[in-house]
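Structure first, sequence second, as always.
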């Protein structure tokens, strides 16, 4: 089956935008999404202090925030950066692995990103996660038990190790086969790669006429 792999960290607002867009791309191309949560700070310990990954130069940082707002407007998504942003969200990332295992990944991951950057909630709070899980028809007791399992951390570490082994260095990172695409803004190239890999006919931008 045609697939796109989506490596992401819930602490990244650009990944919030990319999550919605990759789902749209998958629908248009008939591709499946392989959801790969990982802790972005594991790529570089310094990122633990600046999970938003804003540039150290004030002018560039201001542009990045404006760029985020522009993309959110383009995607018709609310954007509310939490007051305590940036911060690590290990429970939220672990919860995504549980949802993936239970076959609820698209709804759970989309709702969790929306809770973080649409509603500005603390998505590492167990009550918030329980509410999202319940909205996705996940059995709460089973969900919380699975979240506490040691295999959750090892699963996140495995995703991080694989991303690093394939040359990845940011969230969101997407793969179509072994073609790597970095960031929300590369989504048209992701769609183009999926169209090229498909046995279906697509008319992509630049191929009209």
């Amino acid at each position: 089956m045609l697939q796109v792999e989506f490596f992401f960290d819930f602490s990244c607002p650009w990944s919030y935008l990319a999550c919605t867009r990759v789902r749209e791309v998958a629908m248009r191309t008939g591709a499946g999404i392989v959801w790969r949560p990982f802790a972005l700070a594991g790529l570089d310990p310094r990122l633990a202090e600046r999970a938003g990954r804003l540039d150290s130069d004030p002018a560039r940082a201001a542009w990045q925030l404006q760029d985020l707002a522009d993309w959110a407007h383009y995607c018709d998504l609310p954007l509310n950066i939490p007051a305590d942003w940036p911060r690590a969200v290990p429970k939220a990332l672990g919860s995504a692995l549980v949802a993936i295992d239970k076959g609820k990944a698209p709804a759970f991951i989309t709702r969790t990103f929306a809770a973080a950057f649409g509603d500005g909630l603390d998505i590492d709070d167990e009550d918030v996660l329980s509410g999202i899980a319940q909205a996705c028809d996940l059995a709460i007791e089973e969900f919380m038990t699975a979240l506490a399992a040691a295999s959750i951390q090892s699963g996140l570490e495995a995703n991080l190790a694989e991303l690093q082994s394939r040359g990845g260095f940011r969230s969101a990172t997407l793969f179509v086969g072994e073609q790597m695409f970095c960031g929300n803004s590369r989504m048209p190239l992701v769609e183009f790669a999926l169209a090229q890999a498909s046995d279906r006919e697509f008319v992509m931008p630049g191929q009209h006429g």
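Margin note: Residues 48-52 have pLDDT under 50 and may be disordered.
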